[in-house]
Prior knowledge:
By secondary structure, the protein is of the alpha/beta class. Helices cover about 50% and strands about 15% of the residues. It has helices at about 1-50, 105-115, 120-135, 140-145, 150-160, 215-225, 240-250, 260-270, 275-290, 295-305, 310-325, 335-340, 345-355, 365-385, and strands at about 65-75, 80-90, 165-180, 180-195, 200-210, 235-240, 255-260.
Amino acid sequence: MVKIAAVSEQFQHFLENLQEDFWGNLYERTQQAWKRFLEEDSQRQRDRYCGVGWHERGRSRKTSYRNGYYERDWVTRFGTIRLRIARTRAKNFLPTGLRRFQRRADCVALLIREAFLQGVSTRQVGRIVAILTEEPVSAQTVSRLTRDLDEAVRHFHQQPLEDDWCTLFLDGVSLKFRGGAGRKRVHMLVAYGVKQDGSRRLLAFMRSQGESQHAWEGFLQDLYKRGLQGQKTRLIVTDGCPGLAAAIQTVYPRVPHQRCWVHKMRNILEHARKCDRDPLKRDAQAIYQAPSKKAAEDAFRAFKVRWRNAYPSMVKKLEQDLPELLAFFNEPQSLWRKLRTTNIIERCFVEVRRRTRPMVCFVNVKSVDRIIFSIFNRFNLQWSRRRTLKLFTQTT
């Protein structure tokens, strides 16, 4: 058994050395091939510019004179390559694929940006990239490379919206960023839409200082101006924020409004005595789990009779909110579970928090926009390639 173990260990070392030699040689040969190709391409461009090849004479055709070479580091996925770039007295000749002042291949810049967008901190991104390219990357470089997303963010905010979204889910998420006086919070107002054919999309987001009526009105007015006028919208689902409810009445007064039952249940149970929580919860659940709107209204009346003496203010508030809590009953029964809560959009926020948690807080508000756009854009791309929400295609 000892001999077998020794042989196995030797064989394992043999395999590790073989793999190390193979990949090491492969990377080295690939580096050399890229170096040779790029340097020769630079020289060919210089000769073409001068009008004559190496060792050729032709003063009448000459447009410039060769001026030797200069060395430049080029960071690639195969490591850092030192290139000899040809030049004349007038200009330098970069190989095809290189741009002026560029020190990294596009694939490396994409790796840096994608690692950052996956929630890896700027310092950790530098360490990860250094393992692959043997070139350290500072946190400042990572931040600079991610600024390329600003144009994509502007396009996302300005692109026209179709007016065929049958259901809108509206909610907000709060994130931290570094301000002049320390860490601050910024709220992101978000719109999620579902069409009649079951396709879905995160339509828009906007930074705000809070979730006031004024902030939500500005956000909804932007949706309206970009084309989402609500002509085909059958329902707007929210978490019950008073400012949002008031803003909907201003911008989309003809669209029915559904309040989230998950948030409402928290409000109902928030101030309840411990001994009352379980029966109170069961009686409240009987309202939204009823088989019809009329049965739900009957369940509320039973709820009111039982609890109005113990919790008068809570029962009164529930009665005031009841029309907006039962709006989902006017939609097809197959959609009731989806429409009575904001769980659909809340699941997107879970991913936002997961991705942003390693960052602790953002450097500035622009970095908030970049990461939110990238997360939402990835969601939209995934949803465009996958099957639609079939439940929303049912009309009965």
